[in-house]
Amino acid sequence: MLLKDTPVTTDKLLSVQDLRVHFHTLRGIVHALEGVSFHLNRQETLGLAGETGCGKSVTARSVLRLIDPPGRIVSGRIIFEDRDILTLDDTAVRAIRGGEISMIMQEPKMSLNPVIRVGDQVAEALLIHDTSLNRSSARTQAEEMLTQMGIPEAHRTSRRYPHELSGGMAQRIMIAMMLVTRPKLLIADEPTSALDVTIQAQILALMDKLVQDIRTSVLMITHDLGVMAETCDRVAVMYAGNIVEMGAVRSVLKDPQHPYTQGLLKTVPDKANPDHPLYAIKGNVPSLLQPQNHCRFSDRCEYAMARCSREIPPVYQMTDDHEAACFLHDGQSISSGGKQVDLMNP
Amino acid sequence: GRSDVLVVGMATSDIISLDPAKAFEFSGVGIEAQIYDRLLDFPEDRFDKPEFSLAESFNVSEDGKTWTFKLREDVKFHSGNQLTAEDVVYSFKRVVYLNDQPAFILTQFGIAEDSIRAVDKYTVEIKLDNKYASGIFFSCLAAGVASVVDAKVAQQHEQKTDKYPDGDRGLTWLSRNSAGSGPWILRKWEKNESVILDANPKHFMHPPKLKRVIIKEIVEATSRRLQVEKGDIDIAWQMFPDQIKSLMKNADLRIESSPAMVIWYLGINVTKGPLADNRVRTAIRHAIDYNGIIDSIMGGAASPINTFIPEGFAGYEDKVYYKEDLDKARKLMADAGFPDGFEIEMDHGDQTPSPELAQALQNSLARIGITVKLNKLISSQLWPKYRAQKHDLILARWGPDYVDPHTNAQPFADYKAKVLSWRNVYYNDETSAMIQKAGQEMDNDKRIAIYKEVNQIIQTEGPYAMLFQPKYEHAVRNNIDNFTAAPTFDLWKLYPITKK
Amino acid sequence: MLQYLIRRVVTLAITLIGIMVVTFFISLVIPADPLSSIAGPQAPQETVDRLRKLYGFDQPIYIQFGRYANRLAHGDLGTSFQTGRPVLEDIAKYFPATFELATIALFFSIIVGIPLGVLSAVYRNSPIDHFSRVLSLIGVSMPVFWLGLVFLLIFYFKLGWFPEPGRLDIMLIEPERLTGMLLVDSLIALDWEVFFDALKHMFLPAFVLGLYGLAGIARIVRSSMLDVLSQEYIKTARIKGAREFIVLTRHALRNALIPAVTIIGLTYGGLLEGSVLTETIFSWPGLGRYLGTAFLTLDLNAVVGGTMLVALTFCLVNLVVDLLYAFLDPKITLARS
Amino acid sequence: MNTETQIDKRLARNQRWKARQRYFKDSYTLWRRNHLMVVGTTIIILLLLIALSAPLLATHNPLDQILSDRLLPPTWEHFFGTDSLGRDIFSRVVHGARVTLTIALLVALISTPVGLIIGVLAGYFGGAVDEILMRLSDVFLAFPKLILAIAFAAALGPGVENAIIAIAVANWPSYARLARAETLAVRDNDYIQVIRSMGASNLRIMVGHITPMCLSSIIVRLSLDMGTIILTAAGLGFLGLGAQPPTPEWGLMVSDGRLYLVDQWWVSTLPGFAILIVVMGFNLMGDGIRDILDPHQRQS
Amino acid sequence: MRYNNHVNRKTNQSHNPILLTVEDLHVYFSIREGWLSRQRATVKAVNGVNLSLQQGDVFGLVGESGCGKTTLGRAIVGLSPVSHGQILLKGRSIVGLTGQDAHERARQVQLIFQDPYSSLHPRKTVCDLVGVGLKLHGLANGYEIDEQVLAMLKRVGFNIDHLYRYAHEFSGGQRQRISLARALILRPKLLILDEPTSALDVSVQAQILNLLKEIRQEFNLTFLFISHDLGVIRYMSNRIGVMYLGHLVETGATSDVFEHPQHPYTQVLLSSLPSIDPDTPSNRTLLEGDPPTPIDPPPGCPFAQRCPGVKPICREQAPELIHHGNSPDHFTACHFPHVD
Ligand SMILES: Nc1ncnc2c1ncn2[C@@H]1O[C@H](COP(=O)(O)OP(=O)(O)OP(=O)(O)O)[C@@H](O)[C@H]1O
Ligand SMILES: Nc1ncnc2c1ncn2[C@@H]1O[C@H](COP(=O)(O)OP(=O)(O)OP(=O)(O)O)[C@@H](O)[C@H]1O
Ligand SMILES: [Mg+2]
Ligand SMILES: [Mg+2]
């Protein structure tokens, strides 16, 4: 009953095109996103993977147009169904937020308002989007939702404050709050990173069930490739403000086409041989203060060529559903679909 | 309505009690004086000699020790009780018994509890321990402490307190209530807020013209000024000289003034180093820029004075002993062996205009080489220091306790009275003896002559530099008539005032 | 709860005892003589000595202290030199006026300070922010007596918008004294004329006094609001699609107020203190002035009584603040604070 | 020791210097971005300059009384007019900067170390030490500050020095509170625990590791308190317990001039503005220092 | 066979001497509980733990959040109060040391914290941070300190440019390396690593783990490696212990525990781990509910409330950590261990 087993329709729900986000900080302009493009189909789960600071959360927040100063969305289009979120007026955006697109964040306890009872917080989500609803029926609906979330004694729990709940419980509340309006798209920004593995398993199973029930699409952000493998239909791998590789989950994880994805997969110690050193990508994440004018992975890349440090690699299409932004694929050009290079064992 | 209510803005925070036996502050005595009557009283515009009030005649024995007063028979207290000799006896005994601050005004004549008795319903006999000048005695009988209290009412409020385990003679109650017969009835006293006096239309002599007087406590002079200009108060009591100038431009107001019975002086401790030399003291007296100080700091609202008897009292002399004369002063300094001057301290109070005056004096004395270090002290520090004879120079003022030159002559010239002369360690047996003599001189003219003689000595070699006698200046709105400024609050009569 | 209160009361008692001891010994080391001041500059030495005996100041210090402590323990604050009345009575008389003024002033600082702080935070580093910060700073930076006089000059004298200094028009009759607070008493008596007149008289002094608290409140609200606005749960509220106004009030302000409450408590202490000068300017018959003169005349009983009352109020306000804190912040259990 | 790691002392110094330079450069950037802070610092620097060069700037002797020139309005001869004793107000304001600065700085120098020591001790040891020290500070805190200062000033006798001590006495408890709170927050932090697990003594932890963390919030608080300090000094001066005339102390000048407020506004208003501006300068600077010292600000 | 006996046996037969022994360790905290009340509750953070580390071991400690891993580690360096039990370093008790003894212990045992951001003093330069141990123990002064610090920094991958920077100028991985340098500069025998990589990215984690392995060899260290990441534990340690609610529920050689988990909790833990291989079938055992709090825990087996195979006895009697199965070194605290 995992998400990846659901049938994929090709009807695009969300399409992000050439998104650029900059932050004007003390040290200069942080070029956080440098032309991110991807799309998400209806009832599909797209995974967004990458290391800290690569721009996952910024991407997610951009979709809801929630980039606060000093950040600014410089360019790009975010087409949700048939509307461009970036050009809507505030009221329309607010209607989308929470109503059609919801988002779960990483720290469940920090994301709940500490002075409002959790039941009311869930009910508020309903009230905002359905003005005909009265308070008490919103509460009832909220409690029903909590029961659905497998929360014991939903009525009592709904009268509690966030600090009285465990992390797992708080995350359930968050999910309830974000799904109670039956949104078309759920963005989950590392929903389980702060939780223990056993709790993580519970939460993932729960999300899986609910997403099925209300037929929503999911943008699943995580840096845990294991979680990604289990929950997503397609994945996109980000590095320093770019999507470097995107495709069906199996194809990307089994047969990565970008050196960064490959490295990432190899550094996971799960199955590594304890007697050998772990594979480690050399160097550090580059500073985002410079605008991108070449492949940002080039100085850590084992296959780097001269042009890598001069040009920005375009996106090459490997198969219908697998693309990578790397000059190694030059020649197997975008249109041809081309043959694959076995980069795993060069 | 406002038309029969007079509103006076005044700083009255010094009031502690309105009981005649206790009140001894400017405002307390001033208000108490409106509520009670005394055997003798001063008229509203002359202060050299008291007139009959409750008493209608008197007798004095041959030896000058026994005084008999005949009372009017038509006086009723506010309570409706008849005022009789018993009330007078009770009131005087009360003062002696309570023995609070103003008591000395009576006890200085040796009046004790058993020295006063009622001869009949309207005759009182007072025995003194000695012969005293009648002028002094009468002035004291016109002082607030000699007010006659309604004995019945006071006895009703008798209570035992820590200080008076045998009963307080109604002191506690009378502090905030009244049992008098005067032209005004105390309606309410709220400390820091207001005193409200209602007219006593049945007063035997001076039924007031207005219905009510409200004395509103306004501490800040600026605030008083704004309110009188605005018309929220009718009289702004005691405006500062610098305010007067601009108030005079206001057509709705006039300034009423009267010399205050206050003398500002510089006390000189004659045991402190160079100050022991009268040449130095005289140099100091010549170094002071009297006119500059009066014109600038006092805004002209003061006059120079070279006597300890203020203008308004019998014996005042308009004679000038000292003028600013730096050459003379410098020469005297050189003669005394201080051509380059010396350093000395001056203590002074913290209330305007003391600090300004002190600074001006500092400036003046600097011109003859005397470097003065100023000590600004709060009153609870200043006076103990003065009493302990620990000062070098002190800027101070003196106001009379009762309305007779003796009240000034004695402290300034008789060190045995342990007041000013003593504090400045000026022990002159000659002047002391002369003052004692004056105290018993029944002939007023002779008495005054003695004071003048003493003054001469004090001015030439005494421990003071007399600075000036200030004026009281009040801003009065033009719809107030029959206002006569008086040299003290208790001499100020409220009853004649009318309002348009 | 009960235990907690008992603990607070014990602490309070210790504090009060400390204050008493400190005040008493300060009064001893002060090189000044209250009696000399009571007797006035003119009284001869004998009078001073007589008074000294009358007031029991001729006794050795430890006896004085013993007596004094004993009296205090019996709830007797002694008699004031300056009014000649029991200090307790004086306090009962003057405190309500100050309490009323300080409370209204606090109310004013809160009403204005909080929105100012919120605006500053929301429009951080914008002209609004700068304006509100400078404006509120003027409140703390001006000597109260100066500001009070200037306000009187402008708003009373020149413009005539507000009545003369004082609590009530001199011609009006105060309603029966129940609480001592004119606004309350006149409400009880349904005396609207007095009520509105008292309110008018209250305005300027409360404004001047309130300016003092305003800056502190605006500043703390600003900084805690900035803090709160960067929290995740604010994002959550926005994600839910809440209107910005709701986000600011329901979600942010309630959290931002939690630290502000403490400052408000402290401000109240400052207001009581600031009343010394304000009351002088505005002819306000309150405790501040009473205490001010008491100190200048070294009216020891009044000083101790008044100071203890101010301290007591301060402690009580802090207790209320702590309770409020627990009420506002579900995380707080009072046992910990 | 490996020669490769031998440190060239010049190089080391150079590196340290560079690190410091980076720190200052960041501070400068943060400073420059905060406009109000720039204003505040400028005011305080100006105050310092004025205080240092007072004799040069003053057009008259601040103590010279010319009684005939009383209460003159501002003119080219007297920029700020003259006071009730005919002294030049501008010169007095300029010289007053020295007095004000001295008072503010000395109070800071006395009360912060006391508060810091007591607060850190209470916070670090907790328990009975905390209880005793905090009750002590409660007693002082519960006193209205001005009244406590009056009491102490009265006890010690009037004068600037004693006023300074009195204000310091009234002020230390709030710093103790702050230091305690800060210590409590820092005490259980990992970086303190590390030092402790390495065997550092309590004294070293308190002095070397906790105090620096308390310092910044105390500095911020102090600069915000400067205004109150100056005003309390003025209040004491007003009551005759602070600076003594003819010292040109601003508070004293304001209260001396309040009698003339209606007709000769300049006498008390101009020194009043001096107070206003300086207090505002300190406040703005304090707000800014908070931002600059905040390590979070640097990370972004 | 009880674990304690095992300790003795092990001492006798192993060629590697025992470095650290923890015997029946209890760490209780007393906290105030509830609204306005003064009532105190006891947090039994570590509730009777026995373990021993041989010289050269990497002992991995896993368990859910709040199970007491950190508390145990901190107890060893004297930062948590020991309510009962013993901690022996080379046979000498190191509980409640003060003064010179504590100093000595500090030189032998060092701790590295989980959070790279809060474990470095924000107002000090790297040189001061790392050199503090030398200064404290009087091992060097003046530029000697700088030199030794630099040597150590070079070992963990920095150069002189970094010597005088402040902590905020470094990334998380770099900070952990600074912490490592700080710990190593005193040449300790035992290093307690409290989730040293859990705040880091996988690519940085790999660098740190490799570095740790090298360092261990080079400095002849023994590790107590705390983590909740089973993959990391498996890669790093030769022996592991699984903790649950203050108890050690299973311990043994890494391969034994991973391949033949005996305790139901260990089994759940292993099954919950998502695999990066999309083809691996996931057959999860989902646990009911949240982990209970260690505040006044009920008697019986700590896992009883959530155990899928719970029996009545589990709720009454706490199982002891005893040897089950074939592997000699494999101990489990369960009444019904899964032994194949
Ligand atoms: N408010 C901000 N101010 C300045 N820079 C920011 C801000 N928010 C994000 N950035 C920058 O944008 C980049 C992307 O940040 P983002 O939060 O999207 O990373 P992420 O992939 O979600 O990382 P993580 O896994 O840590 O959540 C980072 O390099 C960060 O420095
Ligand atoms: N100083 C303390 N006071 C009270 N309780 C404490 C204290 N320190 C730890 N605890 C409690 O002890 C229990 C164990 O905490 P500990 O930090 O050791 O867990 P952990 O296994 O390290 O968890 P994590 O994986 O979250 O780091 C927790 O319930 C914690 O709340
Ligand atoms: Mg993120
Ligand atoms: Mg931990």
Low-pLDDT residue spans of chain B: none
Whole-number mean pLDDT of chain B: 90
CATH fourth-tier homologous superfamily of the largest domain in chain D: MetI-like
**What composes the largest sheet of chain D?**
none
Order of helices and strands of chain D: HHHHHHHHHHHH
Structural features, described:
Helices cover 30% and strands 23% of the residues of chain A. Chain A has 346 residues and is α/β, with parallel strands linked by helices. Among the domains of chain A are: 101-182, Rossmann fold; 255-340, no CATH class. In chain A, strands 6-7-8-3-9-10-12-11 form an eight-stranded mixed sheet, sandwiched between helices. In chain A, helix 8 (197-214) links the parallel strand 7 (185-189) and strand 8. In chain B, strands 1, 8, 9, 10, 11, 12, 13, 14, 15, 16, 17 and 18 form a twelve-stranded mixed sheet that branches. In chain B, a hairpin with a 3-residue loop joins strand 8 (184-190) and strand 9. Chain C is 75% helix and 0% strand. The model of chain C has no long low-confidence stretch (mean pLDDT 81). Chain D has two domains: 1-25; 34-299, Orthogonal Bundle (MetI-like fold). Chain D has helices at 9-33, 35-52, 54-57, 89-125, 127-142, 145-156, 160-187, 190-197, 202-238, 250-257, 265-293, 295-299. At the B-C interface, strand 10, helix 7, helix 13 and strand 17 of B face helix 2, helix 3, helix 5, helix 7 and helix 12 of C. The complex binds adenosine-5'-triphosphate (ATP) (2 copies) and magnesium ion (2 copies). One adenosine-5'-triphosphate (ATP) binds next to strand 1, strand 2 and helix 2 of chain E.
Give a quick set of tags describing it.
heteropentamer; C: 337 residues; mainly alpha; MetI-like fold; 2 domains; 13 helices; 75% helix; D: 300 residues; 12 helices; binds adenosine-5'-triphosphate; binds magnesium ion
Summarize the structure.
The complex is a heteropentamer of chains A (346), B (500), C (337), D (300) and E (340). Chain C has 337 residues and is an all-alpha fold.
SSE inventory with pairings:
The complex is a heteropentamer of chains A (346), B (500), C (337), D (300) and E (340).
Chain C: H1 2-29, H2 34-39, H3 45-54, H4 61-73, H5 87-122, H6 127-141, H7 144-158, H8 182-188, H9 192-229, H10 232-239, H11 244-281, H12 287-296, H13 300-328
Helix pairs in contact in C: 1-13, 5-6, 5-9, 5-11, 5-13, 6-9, 7-9, 7-11, 8-9, 9-11, 10-11, 11-12, 11-13, 12-13
Chain D: H1 9-33, H2 35-52, H3 54-57, H4 89-125, H5 127-142, H6 145-156, H7 160-187, H8 190-197, H9 202-238, H10 250-257, H11 265-293, H12 295-299
Chain E: H1 3-13, E1 18-32, E2 40-54, E3 58-63, H2 69-76, E4 84-89, E5 92-93, H3 99-108, E6 109-112, H4 126-136, H5 143-155, H6 172-184, E7 190-194, H7 202-219, E8 222-226, H8 230-236, E9 239-244, E10 247-253, H9 254-259, H10 264-272, H11 312-316, E11 322-323, E12 331-332
Parallel strand pairs in E: 3-8, 3-9, 6-7, 7-8
Antiparallel strand pairs in E: 1-2, 1-4, 4-5, 9-10, 10-12, 11-12
The structure holds adenosine-5'-triphosphate (2 copies) and magnesium ion (2 copies).
